[in-house]
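Lab notebook, design round three. We kept the backbone fixed and only want residue identities now. Task for the bench partner: fill in a sequence for the structure below.
Input structure tokens:
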């Protein structure tokens, strides 16, 4: 009976120690989940936005080169929107709300306002390395942390300023 009590006591202490360690490691900011699961690594940016891989669910993409979207060029040709299918989930990054702009400091001058056929709007940020960041939805505006999902594409499919300018020229 004493051995059984000692074993349970040791197991209980081990559980408490592991619980304490896991809570302590989650307090780090910013955090990056760099090993996506198989399902996440196959999740395309288009799928994340429209819940399908059908480009026909996109109504248009405004290419925003400043903070104002008024008068921004719009991509409406479905074949020009195919880049959304090339980007797959890479990782997420969480930071304090006050440091949100620092998280996006590598953002180029381009961001995108994607409007779906159902009228939903998503804002995407093209980073200097060609990856695209999108803010995770959070229903509570009083949260202290913000999270972004990052999507990457193969080198040949990565957007650049030059490719965006080509897209703009084909739309006109």
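Proposed sequence:
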């Amino acid at each position: 009976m004493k051995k059984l009590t000692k074993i349970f006591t040791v197991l209980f202490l081990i559980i408490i120690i592991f619980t304490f360690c896991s809570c302590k490691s989650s307090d780090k900011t910013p955090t990056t989940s760099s090993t996506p699961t198989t399902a996440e690594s196959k999740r395309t940016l288009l799928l994340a936005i429209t819940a399908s891989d059908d480009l026909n669910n996109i109504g248009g993409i405004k290419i925003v080169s400043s903070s104002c979207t008024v008068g921004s060029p719009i991509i409406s040709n479905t074949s020009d929107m195919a880049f959304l299918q090339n980007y797959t989930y890479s990782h997420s990054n969480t930071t304090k709300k006050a440091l949100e702009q620092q998280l996006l400091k590598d953002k180029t001058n381009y961001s995108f306002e994607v409007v779906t056929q159902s009228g939903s709007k998503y804002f995407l940020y093209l980073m200097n390395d060609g990856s695209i960041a999108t803010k995770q939805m959070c229903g509570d505006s009083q949260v202290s942390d913000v999270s972004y999902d990052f999507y990457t594409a193969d080198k040949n499919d990565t957007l650049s300023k030059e490719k965006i300018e080509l897209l703009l020229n084909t739309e006109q």
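Keep this in mind before ordering anything: The chain has a mean pLDDT of 78.
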